[in-house]
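Before a colleague's protein record goes any further, I have to sign it off. What it holds is a sequence and that sequence's fold in token form. Would you go through it and say whether the fold makes sense for this chain? The record follows directly below this note.
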Amino acid sequence: MKVRFILIIGVWLFLCIGCTKQNSTASHGDNECRTDSLKKSGSINLTESGITGVDIIILTDNGLLMHQDYDAENPIYCLRGNDVIKGGSMGQGPDDVLEINSLKWSPDKGLYLYDGLKGRICFYQMEDSVLIMKSAVEVPRFLDDAVLVGDAVVIFPNIKEYSAAILDGNGAVIDSLMYFPPKPEGFSQQVHALACTGYTAELPSGEFARCVAYDGGVDFYAVENNKLKHINRFSLFDMEYTQINQGMDIPVPSDKSKTGFSIVKSSADKFYASFSDKLALENPEGLCDKIYQFSKNGELEQIYVLDCEFKDFAVNRDNKELQVLLDEDNNDVIRIYSL
């Protein structure tokens, strides 16, 4: 949701204004590991269930969780069989959220989200047919993301000299990491940090992965004893963008920027990242048609080629089922694949 929104805004600004390796790096061709072409085994028409405007999906033991923009009273949906469970109201109230930057599922904590405007991580539980906020943890506002990695709260600020940090129970930084994907020549570190907005996926064992806009790479990290470390980078190509001035220099896609790795998700023990080789300006919605599977340490294991272009995807905990979200004839549709 976040990267696609920033990409669309960047494309709009680019067109209106007329803008003409650290750590371990692994570059691989598609022919160096097993590639499978997947065919769907089933589908779900979400629109027929009254669910529209979906942009995030998560597969859990409790069902398919989704975020959608059109129902401010119930922006979070859970489809469990034929039952639809709703919740997560938007607003100023103590149990409301103002912004859903990311939606996550933790084996221990269950469903949670980061609200960047209120500055907190909110946890939910299912009661009958309703999702209810059960608790919240205060974190800084206006972060790119805030996630749980084991017992640690890890934040990604985009406006600091560091790229990630661990917070203690009082919100103080106890460790930080200054690692960014390789920077194109001619841009400041401040602009590069702003360009590094993206998605995070985490594993119960303490590893997490990030992919960011305009980048053909995925970076892998670990939390050990409340310390952050970068453990690997898988890269097909490095970041490519340009900048414009809107009171300050901001990154936007150039005519050479590619969609690259767009979204990263996790199962119980693996990472998955969606990919497209299309130019970003020709693909403003960030649609992808491949999914790369990685070990917890960022080693490429498998490439899946799908029979469609999709907006988002989800993998179940035991790596046996993949679901993708796409638009079919103005309907939000889930396609199901067996891995």
In short: Confidence is low (pLDDT under 50) at residues 3-31.
